[in-house]
Specification:
Blueprint (H helix, E strand, L loop, with lengths): L35 H8 L10 E6 L18 H4 L4 E3 L6 E3 L3 H4 L5 E8 L8 H5 L15 H8 L10 E3 L42 H20 L5 H17 L1 H6 L7 H7 L16 H13 L3 E5 L9 H25 L6 E6 L3 E2 L11 E2 L3 E7 L6 E3 L1 E2 L6 E3 L2 E2 H11 L8 E3 L5 E3 L12
Parallel strand pairs: 1-6, 1-7, 4-11, 4-14, 5-6
Antiparallel strand pairs: 2-3, 4-10, 7-10, 8-9, 12-13, 15-16
Helix pairs in contact: 1-7, 6-7, 10-11
Pfam families: DUF1501
Protein name: DUF1501 domain-containing protein
Length: about 450
């Protein structure tokens, strides 16, 4: 394996921007030993259509409490209502929780969904990143994530920019840092992970850029010798893929996108850094830097960015956790939406903020809320959607959806629509050659499109 060395600023998970890629073994299911060139070679079968559309999918790992965020229950008894009150927003008639004043001030650019249903109950990001229960088509590799679908159907916008990137800091509960599974599409379409330990996709190990270039020249020379004896012309094609692989590894375009020190100080201050990290335990840090990095990556041409923000599994000290995580999320997501809007990118970038399920209406003996897959919530922005809305409602106790239940697949179908893919008709062939629709519930949310 190959590592690029050099001093640089580090992100919240301790990864240097110069030490962010590994050429090495990628294995998913029966597919193993893929190099970066192999990934690019496999992607050549993709339909490469230029598109500026992209998605930033922010996973609130552990299950955020819907009734303490976007669906405050003022009429519920105290053992259910909790400690937070509602605040008015920029849209008359819509109120959200008091921990989110910055988002409240830009509610005209947001959508809150208060009635998300269809949660499988798994303690992972799989549904949020794909729309599917993890068990679906498991015998042939499982369903692909949104990012992997974009990698397959759209391909990269540039040879030096991956289609899909995961900014997931390592977590002790590993499913909370999963990047979005490629499923039956295979390892060639899994997310590029610029993080280090425990994420074995890509890091250049023990080599300088000069030595890497020298090895590239040597490889080219050897391939030239082979090509002279190759009447089929296949070696010319292999050269192209090797050159593309070196392009990703040596281009400054991706390294620059991953270097937030290039941002003006006032922009970095607007996002904040999410420190100190509280209530992290076995989950992700509240790394606001990752949300700024996500904007830089989509601006550079990445089609899909996934990240895990915080650890919301609040079986105890729920209200202290929401004050901490919620305030940091409020700062970072409001900065992201403002940033995208000021740069003229908001209509082209879909932002999703959600978790794997909601939390119990009744507060437990540890001032916490437990798992509640019956109903959850989501925050959405951008993508050309009709924003300034609160969609759906739950009953007085926040137990179940009573108006406009929104299945998780409807949200994913809406994301696909925003990305320029028709969820009603688009299919991808599975390994048996059978066409598979992107989601089962294929109609995007009529309120938004």
């Amino acid at each position: 394996m190959l590592n690029i060395y050099g001093k640089a600023a580090k992100y919240c998970d301790g990864v240097s921007r110069r030490n962010f890629m590994k050429i090495g073994g990628l294995s998913t299911g029966a597919i193993g030993g893929l190099s970066l060139a192999d990934m690019l070679r496999a992607e050549d079968g993709s339909t490469r259509k230029n598109s500026e559309k992209s998605i930033i999918n922010i996973f609130l790992a552990g299950g955020p409490p819907h009734q303490d965020m976007w669906d405050i229950k003022t009429e519920a008894p105290s053992e259910i209502r909790g400690e937070f009150g509602p605040i008015d927003t920029a849209v008359p008639g819509i109120q959200i929780g008091e921990c989110f004043p910055k988002l409240a001030a830009m509610m005209d650019k947001l959508v809150v969904v208060r009635s998300v249903v269809g949660c499988s109950g798994g303690h992972d990001a799989f549904q949020c990143f794909s729309g599917w229960d993890r068990r679906n088509l498991n015998s042939i590799g499982g369903r692909p994530s949104i990012g992997s679908v974009l990698s397959k159907l759209r391909g990269p916008t540039s040879p030096s920019i991956p289609s899909t990137v995961a900014l997931c800091a390592k977590t002790r509960h590993v499913p909370w840092s999963e990047p979005g599974d490629p499923g039956f599409l295979g390892a060639a379409h899994q997310a590029f992970r610029p993080n280090g330990e425990g994420m074995d996709n890509l890091t250049l190990n023990g080599i300088t850029l000069d030595r890497l270039q020298n090895r590239g020249q040597l490889l080219t020379s050897l391939d030239g010798m082979k090509r002279s004896a190759d009447a089929s012309g296949m070696m010319d094609g292999m050269d192209a893929f090797s050159q593309a692989a070196f392009g990703v590894l040596t281009s400054s375009q991706l390294a620059d996108a991953l270097d937030i020190s290039k941002e003006p100080a006032e922009v970095r201050e607007r996002y904040g850094d999410g420190k100190p990290y509280q209530y992290q335990y076995d989950g992700a840090p509240t790394c606001n830097d990752h949300i700024l990095l996500a904007r830089r990556l989509v601006e550079a041409g990445v089609r899909s960015v996934t990240l895990s923000f915080g650890r919301w599994d609040s079986h105890g000290k729920n209200f202290d956790l929401v004050r901490d995580h919620g305030t940091k999320l409020d700062q970072a997501v409001s900065a992201l939406v403002q940033d995208l809007d000021e740069r003229g990118m908001l209509d082209n970038v879909t932002v999703l903020v959600w978790g794997e399920f909601g939390r119990t209406p009744r507060i437990n003996a540890n001032a916490g809320r437990d798992h509640w897959p019956q109903v959850s919530c989501a925050l959405m922005a951008g993508g050309g959607m009709r924003t300034g809305q609160a969609i759906g409602s739950t009953n007085r106790l926040g137990e179940r959806a009573v108006s406009r239940p929104v299945d998780m697949q409807e949200i994913v179908a809406t994301a696909y629509h925003n990305l320029g893919l028709d969820p009603m008709n688009t299919t991808i062939a599975d390994p048996s050659g059978r066409p598979q629709f992107l989601v089962d519930i294929r109609e995007p949310m009529a309120e938004l499109v």
